[in-house]
Amino acid sequence: MAHTVKNFDRLIGLDGFSEKLLKQHFSLYQGYCNKLNEIEEKLSTADRTTANYSFGEFSELKRRETVAFNGTYLHELYFENLGPTLLTPDGALSEALKRDFGTLQAWEKDMRACALSTPGWVLLTHNWVDSKLHHYILYEHHIGLPVHQKPLLAIDCWEHAFMLDYGTAKAEYLNAFFKNLNWNVVEDRFARVLKHLK
Ligand SMILES: [Fe+2]
Q1: Which of 45, 98, 111, 149 could bridge to 125 as Cys pair (CB 3.0-4.6 Å)?
Q2: What's the total number of domains in the chain?
């Protein structure tokens, strides 16, 4: 079944994010979604007998399938967890963050350090293996994420996410991100973990 592009126009007007930047970012996301559909369609008929490490249509499609999927899904996570509703987390999520990072301040400090460490993505995840919260950094869209994770929060750290508004001042972009972090969405994702839902 084809993947459908989601609309995130509700974010236009968000303090710290220009309309021009957001619209360009939405276009990038749509491009990944379209490519995911194109790859899946081509894979349905690609010749399996020519699969090859150096080059082959089927092999190339498989190598880029995860890029397009993660490029789509990670952007949806990111746009969904933008938009202010709560200033700080509370309840079960807050307790879990304190359990695994010490304090909420230490958690944010760690996540900011992760963001400055990657040109790609930072994810806060629930790790189903050790049942703890972790930060993981991704290079490109498909490199660096351990298996068996439930993403709870995503920060897009690619330059296209901030260069237009902040130049190389990535820390200022992170200030805008944390100011506009939609904790309700993150808490809902964690509530699903506690119910053992995907
Ligand atoms: Fe992006």
Answers
A1: 149
A2: 2
Would you say 153 and 124 are in contact if contact means Cβ atoms under 8 Å apart? yes
Q: Are residues 110 and 73 in the same domain?
A: no
Cβ partners under 8 Å of residue 106, min gap 6 = none
One domain, residues 34 and 125: no
Domain assignment of residue 72, given as a range: 18-80
Domain boundary among 80, 101, 116: 80
Handedness of CA 104, 193, 191, 74 (dihedral sign): positive
pLDDT by residue, tens only, the chain of 198 residues = 799 999 999 999 999 999 999 999 999 999 999 999 999 999 999 999 999 999 999 999 999 999 999 999 999 999 999 997 777 888 999 999 999 999 999 999 999 999 999 999 999 999 999 999 999 999 999 999 999 999 999 999 999 999 999 999 999 999 999 999 999 999 999 999 999 876
26 with 120, same domain: the answer is: no
Expressed in angstroms and rounded, the spacing between residue 91 Cα and the centre of ligand 1 is 30
Same domain for 178 and 152? yes
Ligand 1 centroid–CA 74 distance in Å is 8
Distance 47 CA to ligand 1 centre (A): 32
CA of 10 to the centre of ligand 1 (A): 17
